[in-house]
């Protein structure tokens, strides 16, 4: 909580003092991407956790910078990359976690890059924000472990599995529909989100794709509980955002709000997903809009986009649940 709160608040504070608030918000976005890194039981474990999340952040930022643009091909490239990542996630559990992070980061950064002509500068600022927060994670983790305030038992030893066996298992799963259901659901939902965005270009419907990536999970469930929680949490979050950003906020107020919301994120995420979504929605809106006042119509668009994204995920899940069940029935 301390690492993420300071990691996101300090860049805004420094940028505000230099009269460059938007640049600070971009660096804070990089800090946000590193916000869910787990606490390590020692320095080596912490570095391994950070290296995994940094790989996902760097890969997503570079990919988004290369493909983002005002054309259908940019959306097609985004969908193809997300689906390829979804396929590789079937290799192992660590790969599934890394690919899931990459997909979410890709959609977030893609939307950020698409609206800016200075993609190289955005890449550098996001990387600096992520590195700054990672340094705080290492510093606070080491200090708390030295003080005896953190004690994490080592995970149970997992049986060693050969890479060749994992690859063969992945190939075998791709010979049937259940092995393809996750990338196909993701492609279907992201494709629909892209079409809606192109059909109504004057609305802020890029949030549909973000909602899809957050709610479309590898394990197939007809009606995941998180879909309902996110829809309700987003509604509460948008309402709270309307109260926060109806007018220009003073820089110190903006720093405090972002610092508090960012600090609550890691604590709420593992305790109450509804409350986590309600608190993260204002935070993401503030980051995407660089602290500027947000019109009510934009907030309504984003709420509608969240509900549309949830509906797309539910529809795709129900469709593939029936298809998979029919394929599993004996002839």
What features would you highlight for this structure?
331 residues; mainly alpha; 13 helices; 0% strand
Walkthrough of the structure:
This protein is 76% helix and 0% strand. The protein is an all-alpha fold and 331 residues long. It has one domain. α2 packs across α6 (119-146) and α4 (72-88) runs antiparallel to α8. The longest helix is centred in the C-terminal third of the chain and has 33 residues, at 296-328.
Shape: globular
Structural class: mainly alpha
Give the radius of gyration. Answer: 20 Å
Rounded mean pLDDT is 82
Percent in helix: over 70%
Order of helices and strands: HHHHHHHHHHHHH
Number of helical runs? Answer: 13
What is the percentage of strand-forming residues? under 5%
Q: Indicate the low-confidence ranges by residue numbers.
A: none
CA-to-CA gap between the ends? Answer: 54 Å
Number of strands: 0
Topology at a glance:
Blueprint: H1 2-17, H2 21-33, H3 43-67, H4 72-88, H5 93-114, H6 119-146, H7 163-173, H8 177-199, H9 207-215, H10 225-244, H11 251-269, H12 273-288, H13 296-328
Helix pairs in contact: 1-2, 1-6, 1-11, 2-6, 3-5, 3-6, 4-5, 4-8, 5-9, 8-9, 8-13, 9-13, 10-12, 10-13, 11-12
Q: What is the structure about, briefly put?
A:
By secondary structure, the chain is mainly α.
